[in-house]
Amino acid sequence: MGRAICRQLAERGHRISVLDIDGDAASAVAAEITGSGGTARAGVVDVSDRAAIETASTTCAPPRTRRDHGDECGHRGFTEFLDITPRHGPLMAVNLTGTFHCLQAAVPDMIEAGWGRIVTISSSSAQSGTRRMSHYVASKGGVIAFTKALALDLARHASR
Ligand SMILES: NC(=O)c1ccc[n+]([C@@H]2O[C@H](COP(=O)([O-])OP(=O)(O)OC[C@H]3O[C@@H](n4cnc5c(N)ncnc54)[C@H](O)[C@@H]3O)[C@@H](O)[C@H]2O)c1
Q1: Mind listing the pLDDT tens digit for each residue in 46-67?
Q2: 21, part of any domain
Q3: Which is the closest atom of ligand 1 to the Cα of 47?
Q4: pLDDT for 87
Q5: What are residue 43's DSSP bridge partners?
Q6: C-alpha 16 – ligand 1 centre gap (Å)
Q7: N or C end of the chain, less CB within 10 A?
Q8: Structural domain count of the chain
Q9: Is residue 35, in this structure, part of any structural domain at all?
Q10: Is 127 a member of any domain?
């Protein structure tokens, strides 16, 4: 989904930073975009690692993207509720805390630029509930609630 979104945005003329924990995958997507005449860079980041996000935000995106150019993760696994163990913890760290960290790193630059758009990726399962995915559904429901709260917090910065 991230690849498709990047390609669509590139086709509409946007300059793209492709960030992924899998550097080869990120590079491949960036290469596809540049090969099609677009502008893209690739970077490696684990969205559950706040320090890595801070580094990426200064070396790759979004501030460097904006200055240089002029301006999901997803973990899924079907597991019965009582079989969910702390080893499933990274799912919350990636889907929910990772979204929180990435936006805390990105929003200051949007405020400085006076412009920004945020698209978070949740899941329809957060509306309906899905069997054997209570941990995933909890993380994605958190993304929806977080996005609504963030919209209220950031509304005062919206000028256009
Ligand atoms: N595919 C679906 O049917 C579906 C449905 C509802 C919601 N979603 C959500 O959409 C998003 C994308 O789903 P997808 O199907 O394209 O997944 P995918 O597995 O194809 O892609 C996920 C990408 O995230 C990267 N990634 C994983 N952990 C990471 C981390 N810690 N830091 C940085 N990158 C990391 C992976 O390397 C991979 O490139 C996810 O948030 C998923 O929950 C997907």
Answers
A1: 999 999 988 887 766 554 555 5
A2: no
A3: 32
A4: 79
A5: 19
A6: 18
A7: C
A8: 1
A9: no
A10: yes
CB of 123 shorter than 6 A to ligand 1:
yes
For residue 63, give both structure tokens.
């501030």
Within 8 A by CB and 6+ apart from 49, the residues are: none
pTM: 0.84
Please give the distance, rounded to the nearest whole angstrom, from the Cα atom of residue 135 to the centre of ligand 1.
15
Where do we find the tokens 């698209």? 119
Q: What is the CATH number of the domain that holds 111?
A: 3.40.50.720
* 8 A C-beta contact, residue 26 and residue 18: yes
Query: Is 79 part of any domain?
Result: yes
In this predicted structure, the answer to whether residue 88 has a pLDDT above a threshold of 90 is: no
- Distance, CA of 23 to CA of 44 (rounded, Å): 5
Structural domain including 139 reads 75-157
Residue 1 near residue 121 (C-beta atoms within 8 A): yes
Indicate which residue of 136, 137, 139, 142 is catalytic: 136
